[in-house]
Amino acid sequence: MSGHWVDTWTATPQRIEPGDLPPPPYAGGGSPGGPVLADATLRQTIRISAGGPRLRLRLSNAFGTAPLPVTRLAVARPAGGRAGVSAIEPGTSRPLTFSGHAHVVVPPGAQAVSDPLDMPLAAGSIVTVTAYLADGQHAAVTGHPGSRTTSHLAPGDQCEAVELAGATPVDHWYLLSAAEVHADPGTYALVLLGDSLTDGRGSTTNGNDRWPDRLADRLGGLLDGAGLAIANQATGGNRVLADGLGPSALARLDRDVLARSGARWLIVFEGVNDLGVAEPSPAAQKRTAGELVAGYEQIVTRAHAAGLTVYGATLTPFGGHDYDDPGGCREAARQEVNDWIRTGGRFDAVIDFDRAVRDPAEPRRLRAAFDGGDGLHLNAAGYQALAEAVPAGLFAR
């Protein structure tokens, strides 16, 4: 079969912190140090970007310190085609296998790729993924806390159940890191390297209205049928230069960007957290701005070596947020960084997100209509504005 595998949905693997673990009795079985998700069914929905005739999934144990044993895994179509629902359409559940086996054990630090499954999916489809773990996982769990999507936990093996009995909702993803489709030769992936602004903080739970979602919808109607998949590799709180809530962008670049299936383009949209955690003094902000520029140059160099085209997005305003220091040192650094992004010539093209969402009357702040409420994160309208600011011509074949 002609074509190739392309990432059509991704969730950056993160270590699940105690506050984001599944609620009792699914975390530890009520005993300290007990297994997580033991004798439990986990049902999650994901929204793919590009479509294709075959599907495979990736499970991640990137931050696990013990093996991850998954007893059964199945995919189905969700009830009503909706995100975040616990029910599936009757008769649509299909088992996934790993080297022909229903079960798989993912070693610590590793991932597992399922066997391909014939399952024709249109672009923008919602897919339900259900896992049953008989033994659960001991020690650290890998997932993605900023799902903006409701998952469901249920007791026992309900992998094939149309309706989950005794389900408990939780707004996190666990274990899943990617879905791939076998797409036509002209379909490629756009990878997004970002922080909470790309992860969708401030978007609508189960609404799939992050800017990457809106961009996928927009480009799907503009590229004359040429497929484009989007791999959203953002994590809340992420920094370019130093670890925080997970590894820095420089540390995770190989795993989260360069290793993506079918990747051709990269958008880099982060750095605000680097400025925000640095001391609000002229010297510290000047130093951080310079280090950010050097970090961007490293990302461009490494991505170019892997054959990717790299686009830089300007940093959006944070006036009125906790990052907004009274002396304006961080704002001055943001302007310095944005000036380099626009004029430095290192990116293959520039996407001016700052211009798209700033208040023309007070450029250090977001437009009121786009502000998610804290001066930094955007609402659904703001994320739509970001999506509209990305030129479709950047993805010409």
Topology:
Layout: E1 4-10, E2 14-15, E3 40-47, E4 52-60, E5 68-70, E6 72-76, E7 94-95, E8 104-106, E9 111-113, E10 117-121, E11 126-133, E12 142-144, E13 151-155, E14 168-170, E15 173-174, E16 176-183, E17 188-194, H1 196-199, H2 211-220, E18 228-234, H3 249-258, E19 263-269, H4 272-277, H5 282-305, E20 309-313, H6 329-343, E21 349-351, H7 353-357, E22 358-359, E23 362-366, H8 380-388
Parallel strand pairs: 17-18, 17-19, 19-20, 20-21
Antiparallel strand pairs: 1-16, 2-12, 3-11, 3-13, 4-9, 4-10, 4-16, 5-8, 6-7, 6-11, 12-15, 13-14, 22-23
Helix pairs in contact: 2-8, 3-5, 5-6
Description:
- The chain is of the alpha+beta class and 397 residues long.
- It contains eight helices and 23 strands.
- It has helices spanning 196-199, 211-220, 249-258, 272-277, 282-305, 329-343, 353-357, 380-388; strands spanning 4-10, 14-15, 40-47, 52-60, 68-70, 72-76, 94-95, 104-106, 111-113, 117-121, 126-133, 142-144, 151-155, 168-170, 173-174, 176-183, 188-194, 228-234, 263-269, 309-313, 349-351, 358-359, 362-366.
- The strands form six sheets. Strands 7-6-11-3-13-14 form a six-stranded antiparallel β-sheet, with no helix packed on it. Strands 1, 4, 9, 10 and 16 form a five-stranded antiparallel β-sheet that branches.
- Strand 22 (358-359) and strand 23 (362-366) form a beta hairpin.
- The radius of gyration is 21 Å and the shape is globular.
- The protein starts with a strand and ends in a 9-residue tail after the last helix.
- The mean pLDDT is 96.
